[in-house]
Amino acid sequence: MWLPFNTKVWLYRQPIDFRKQIDGIVLLVADTLNKDPTSGQLFVFRNKKTDKIRLLYWEDNGFWLLYTRNEKSRFIFPCISNDTIELSISQLHWMLSGLYFNQKKEPEKLSFSRFY
Global pTM? Predict the structure, then answer.
Protein backbone atom coordinates (compact mmCIF):
# COMPACT_ATOMS: atom_id res chain seq x y z
CA MET A 1 0.00 0.00 0.00
CA TRP A 2 1.34 3.38 -0.96
CA LEU A 3 -0.30 6.53 0.38
CA PRO A 4 -0.02 9.62 -1.80
CA PHE A 5 1.42 12.64 -0.01
CA ASN A 6 -1.85 14.54 -0.29
CA THR A 7 -4.04 11.77 1.17
CA LYS A 8 -6.60 13.06 3.63
CA VAL A 9 -6.52 11.22 6.94
CA TRP A 10 -9.60 11.15 9.17
CA LEU A 11 -9.50 10.08 12.82
CA TYR A 12 -12.84 8.93 14.21
CA ARG A 13 -12.61 9.80 17.90
CA GLN A 14 -15.33 7.44 19.13
CA PRO A 15 -14.07 3.93 20.03
CA ILE A 16 -15.42 1.21 17.72
CA ASP A 17 -16.03 -2.50 18.16
CA PHE A 18 -12.95 -4.20 16.73
CA ARG A 19 -14.95 -7.29 15.83
CA LYS A 20 -16.18 -5.25 12.84
CA GLN A 21 -14.52 -6.27 9.63
CA ILE A 22 -14.22 -4.34 6.36
CA ASP A 23 -17.95 -4.30 5.55
CA GLY A 24 -18.92 -3.02 9.00
CA ILE A 25 -16.29 -0.29 8.94
CA VAL A 26 -17.25 0.72 5.38
CA LEU A 27 -20.86 1.15 6.56
CA LEU A 28 -19.63 3.23 9.51
CA VAL A 29 -17.66 5.52 7.17
CA ALA A 30 -20.58 5.91 4.76
CA ASP A 31 -23.45 6.22 7.26
CA THR A 32 -21.95 7.78 10.38
CA LEU A 33 -19.12 9.87 8.94
CA ASN A 34 -20.99 10.71 5.72
CA LYS A 35 -17.84 10.15 3.69
CA ASP A 36 -17.12 8.04 0.63
CA PRO A 37 -15.08 5.00 1.73
CA THR A 38 -13.80 4.56 -1.85
CA SER A 39 -12.51 8.14 -2.09
CA GLY A 40 -8.86 7.24 -1.48
CA GLN A 41 -8.92 8.87 1.94
CA LEU A 42 -7.54 7.05 4.97
CA PHE A 43 -9.86 6.42 7.91
CA VAL A 44 -8.39 5.77 11.37
CA PHE A 45 -10.30 4.04 14.18
CA ARG A 46 -9.47 3.22 17.78
CA ASN A 47 -10.69 0.77 20.38
CA LYS A 48 -11.93 1.56 23.88
CA LYS A 49 -8.72 0.48 25.67
CA THR A 50 -6.61 2.69 23.33
CA ASP A 51 -4.16 -0.11 22.58
CA LYS A 52 -5.38 -0.88 19.03
CA ILE A 53 -5.80 1.07 15.81
CA ARG A 54 -7.46 0.11 12.55
CA LEU A 55 -6.91 1.92 9.26
CA LEU A 56 -9.25 1.63 6.28
CA TYR A 57 -8.04 2.65 2.84
CA TRP A 58 -9.37 2.14 -0.70
CA GLU A 59 -6.78 1.50 -3.40
CA ASP A 60 -7.72 0.94 -7.07
CA ASN A 61 -10.04 -2.05 -6.76
CA GLY A 62 -10.20 -3.04 -3.11
CA PHE A 63 -9.91 -2.11 0.53
CA TRP A 64 -6.90 -2.28 2.80
CA LEU A 65 -7.71 -2.93 6.45
CA LEU A 66 -4.62 -2.40 8.58
CA TYR A 67 -4.42 -3.23 12.25
CA THR A 68 -1.83 -2.45 14.88
CA ARG A 69 -1.72 -3.30 18.57
CA ASN A 70 0.49 -1.71 21.21
CA GLU A 71 1.67 -4.52 23.46
CA LYS A 72 3.06 -2.57 26.41
CA SER A 73 1.61 0.92 26.23
CA ARG A 74 -1.38 2.84 24.91
CA PHE A 75 -1.90 5.18 21.99
CA ILE A 76 -2.70 8.77 22.87
CA PHE A 77 -5.95 10.11 21.45
CA PRO A 78 -7.96 13.29 21.94
CA CYS A 79 -11.05 13.13 24.13
CA ILE A 80 -13.94 11.00 22.90
CA SER A 81 -16.58 12.71 20.80
CA ASN A 82 -18.70 11.90 17.75
CA ASP A 83 -16.80 14.10 15.32
CA THR A 84 -13.77 13.36 13.20
CA ILE A 85 -10.44 15.13 13.06
CA GLU A 86 -8.42 15.59 9.91
CA LEU A 87 -4.78 14.62 10.44
CA SER A 88 -1.74 15.19 8.31
CA ILE A 89 0.41 12.24 7.32
CA SER A 90 3.04 13.48 9.82
CA GLN A 91 0.48 13.57 12.63
CA LEU A 92 -0.60 10.04 11.74
CA HIS A 93 3.00 8.86 12.01
CA TRP A 94 3.37 10.58 15.38
CA MET A 95 0.18 8.97 16.64
CA LEU A 96 1.25 5.52 15.45
CA SER A 97 4.57 6.07 17.23
CA GLY A 98 2.78 6.65 20.52
CA LEU A 99 3.13 10.44 20.55
CA TYR A 100 0.25 12.84 20.97
CA PHE A 101 -0.25 14.22 17.47
CA ASN A 102 -1.00 17.78 18.64
CA GLN A 103 2.11 17.89 20.78
CA LYS A 104 4.38 18.62 17.87
CA LYS A 105 3.98 21.45 15.42
CA GLU A 106 4.34 20.81 11.75
CA PRO A 107 6.85 22.93 9.92
CA GLU A 108 5.41 26.04 8.37
CA LYS A 109 4.36 25.52 4.76
CA LEU A 110 6.41 27.64 2.41
CA SER A 111 5.30 29.12 -0.87
CA PHE A 112 7.43 30.92 -3.38
CA SER A 113 6.56 33.24 -6.21
CA ARG A 114 10.03 33.75 -7.63
CA PHE A 115 12.53 31.13 -8.65
CA TYR A 116 16.09 31.64 -9.87
Answer: 0.84
